[in-house]
Amino acid sequence: MLLKYAPGATHAPHHSTKEWVDRISARHLFDEGWNKVRERIFENQKRLGVIPKDTKLSPWPKDVLKEWDQLTAEEKKLFIRQVEVFAAYVAYSDHEIGRVIQAFDDLGKLDNTLIIYINGDNGTSAEGGPLGTPNEVAFFNGLNELPVNVQMKFYDVWGTDQTYNHMSAGWSWMFDAPFSWFKQNASRLGGTNQNMVVSWPARIKDKGGLREQFVHVIDVVPTILEAAGISAPEMVDGIKQAPIEGTSFAYTFDTANAKAPSRHTTQYFEMFGQWALYHDGWFLSTKVNRAPWEVYGPANPDPLNNQVLELYDLNTDFSQTTDLAAKNPQKVKEMKEMFVAEAKKYQVFPLDASVAARIVAPRPNITAGRTEFVYTRPMTGLPQGDSPLLLNTSYTVTADIEVPQGGAEGMILTSGGRFGGCGFYLLKGKPVWLWNMVDLERLKWEGPDEVAPGRHTVEFDFKYDGLGAGTLAFNNFSGVGRSGTGTLKIDGKVVATRKLEKTLPAILQWDESFDIGSDTLTGVNDADYKPPFPLTAKLNKLTIKVDRPQLSPEDIKKLEESLKRAADAK
Questions:
Q1: Is the CB of residue 135 less than 8 Å from the CB of residue 144?
Q2: Which CATH architecture has domain 372-553?
């Protein structure tokens, strides 16, 4: 039997039960702050022998993160709340994993069960930014440093379903000790190095033994195949399979091989234009040029060559703290050539250093190229990627409805939810269009009167002022998140008009769907209704027309000139 147990933990949002949060809070684990706790973690790592005794603790990044003693009392209070909720999430998840393992023990199957426990697929995330956030959807829309006084409004509900929370990056740097940087920073061990524990009592005899060979997550499948004594399939459903990449680490199960040389000798890393290459203990890496919370702004136009390269000998420098590039220029040259070869082999090129632009960029899907969408019946659960995107564009939404005697209410159309999205609904009979601006503000167009019984058209028209997502092709964000004017109409008559000075530039709440006729999961405005809020009028037809901005020749000329100036400045 093969079982993969992959909980959402500890990805944001950090949600745990009150019981577990209270348990962690009562222990006051983090009251001393991230600098002192990091030093304590580091000393514990050395004491336990899981890192070499001569490991150096990477320095604190004073240029991007405050030290604990520089914080205000209010900042400390908020940040401790953030990390206690995160730690509760970790502890709760570990407890549940323990229950799974206990079940195998209760069945008498644990002795011959191979367990591979990997705590995450990257370093600790810093996408909360220096201050943390009550709503990660806000982060992906460019609001990456919400003021502490704004966040304190969410203090009592932090980690509940009222938040899509993430902690301050100060804690993330602490948890990545002894390494530096975070998830997204593929050139630093703080972004890629993870703990792994392997248990197989019938096969592995030195319980508690330490293995220090280089292992990558792509090695897991080859290891399982070797342990099970089976080969990877060459054909599946008549389709020839690509070879499984990776190297089995089953050889490390034997005590005699505890100090054997690593068999996985070469491995590339790359994410958002930051890259590295491991080879026989040497590690070539790009110097970090973007913190994970810096997702907006022009990207590095040449991420392969427009880099400062660093070189580390991980055989003697476990925590990647001593750069040897200046002393070994030939080694740097050779390893860069190796990275290029690996990148070509594994289809890494072309490198792309953009982050937000990549999120906003149109993708091939069922809506691509279409400008009109017609729905003739209720429908729920359509993923964001397969539904009409109403960001950075003009659009018109028209509902042909029949209101029964006694009036009607309910959801006509919604996309997103509590942490960012829009809704078109009848509230106590009155038509409403609402934009939820990442749970910080809700902007509403509302008709003054109830819609009378009978057949009517209810329409919301939005005229966007910006150039649209087309500017992103020129490494330019000037076209997204711009202003626009919305108009609400009943049977062609204008009943409400409002200008938005800013719009969401990138994304709606990604784990909420596009729904017609009712609302699933969370609503866009708890003050108005509770899901599912079914539409009690008859929906004859819902039409969405999208009019995406097109760049003029003059627009393109200006953007090209701007791009050239930026490249020259680099």
A1: no
A2: Sandwich (2.60)
